[in-house]
Amino acid sequence: MQKLFLLLYKFKTFLIFVVLELICLLLIVQYNKYQSVAFLNSSNRLVGTIFSITGNIEDYFILKSKNEQIAQDYSLLQNKLDSLQKINDALYLQSQELTHQVSTLDSTASSKHPLDKFLTDTSLSFQYIPAKVINNSVLHERNYLTLNKGSNDGIDVDMGVICADGVVGKVIAVSGSFATVQSLLHLDTKISSKLRGNLSTTHWVPYDVHTAKLDGVERHLKIRDRELITTSGYNSVFPEGIKIGEVKKAMLESDKSHYNIDVTLSTDFKTLYFVYVVKKNKKEEQLNLEAQRNGK
Amino acid sequence: MENKGVLSQVINFVLYAAIHILVMNKLPLYNTAFCYIYVAFLILLPVNTSRTVELFIGFGTGLFIDIFYDSIGINAAACVALAFVRPYVIQLLSGKHSFEGVSRISIQETGIQWFFIYAGSLLFLHHLILFFIDTSSSQFIFSSIVKAFFSALYTLVTIIIFQYLLATNTQRR
User: Shortest Cα distance from B11 to chain A (angstroms)?
Assistant: First the structure.
């Protein structure tokens, strides 16, 4: 027994080396499980604070271009708002006319305007929390972002993150004032998407920052170049209709039942600055319902 | 004396980690060469550091850097391997002229040629492990070797520049 201990002591450096390497491998393999451990990721307070300081310094160098970008985004949104307002007004007038007609036909109909229900109903509303990207990587196989907002601002794990151009990723860890986001540019990210109403999945293959793959589009469809791909809204992470990208190239191999589609991503991950965290107000309810249904 | 040595190593660690996190990490070249200047701290540890302590220092340093980039375990694994191999490399390279008198590793003490081979080989090993673990799919093996080579060169040049910068500082004092 003593000899054994002596032997172990003789090789202690090697043993420690092996044990430490095993711990490292365990951490690498099991990382997904440790994401909830707040101090092991970039939403940790020390790391977040350092990143937000460097981010503040970097701000001075990019303020001008970012201001121009924001002005552009703003004008785009303003145009969208105007056109939506017009449609909305037209619909409102039309429905008012219709209710008037109905009420003259049926005196028992409620005097309440039918659209009022939608105006006050918040069950499906989304709340967008603006945040700034303080750390960003695009060159690895698994890329993450750090945001300068955390649980104090209402951000929680599994919320979607978008920017003015399109989808960005999903929150995977959160501390009081910082959040870590798993980028779309990550091997494990899969986003439920829609191509002209057909359900499919977007995922990324390293290392091209501008291109992703689209799975699950069946071969009987005619796919044209530059067709729009958006989020499906079927999972509770992203709202429906957020832009993901455009079809770059659709290939059809003779023995496959699905297309092999390259997608040009609409988000420029290299220059991400302002993003919005999507908070779905009745998300819990939807998840519970789905869990219940799956349980039965 | 002992405490002074530890303190100067702590300062070294903070210095190199800060340069890595605040500056060099944001300056990759052509998406192929990455500068992992924090490794300089491990390479420049005193020769007479106990091997066990060195392993733990390597593990801690790697883990600290990993936390910043959400890559838990990857840098740590590479650093532990580096810390394990380093004494052998020193032994191998200093075969003829022994380093018993020299406890500090620096260009001034060892000469640039020795330092170039010593740091270059350790950096290449460290980067190779790093990129191999980072890329899980086998189709990128060649690209990770290329990345490791150019990153090692990039880091090495940066470390040598910093060596001269810091050395002139100490001489002035």
Answer: 18
Query: Mind listing the pLDDT tens digit for each residue in A58-78?
Result: 888 878 887 887 877 787 888
Whole-complex ipTM:
0.72
Instruction: Give per-residue pLDDT as tens, A233-271.
Output: 787 788 888 888 888 888 887 777 888 888 888 888 888
Domains of chain A: 39-280 (2.40.10.350)
Classify A126 as helix, strand or coil. strand
B70/A44 touch (CB, cutoff 8 Å), yes or no: no
- Would an 8 Å CB–CB cutoff place A40 in contact with chain B? yes
Mutate to test the interface with B, among A8, A9, A10, A21 (most CBs of B within 10 A): A21
Gap from A75 CA to chain B (nearest CA, Å): 32
DSSP letters along A2-24, please? HHHHHHHHHTHHHHHHHHHHHHH
What domains does chain B contain, in order, with CATH numbers? 2-172 (1.10.1760)
Which residues on chain B are in Cβ contact (under 8 Å) with A39? Answer: 67
CA angle (B45, B50, B55) in 5-degree steps? 75
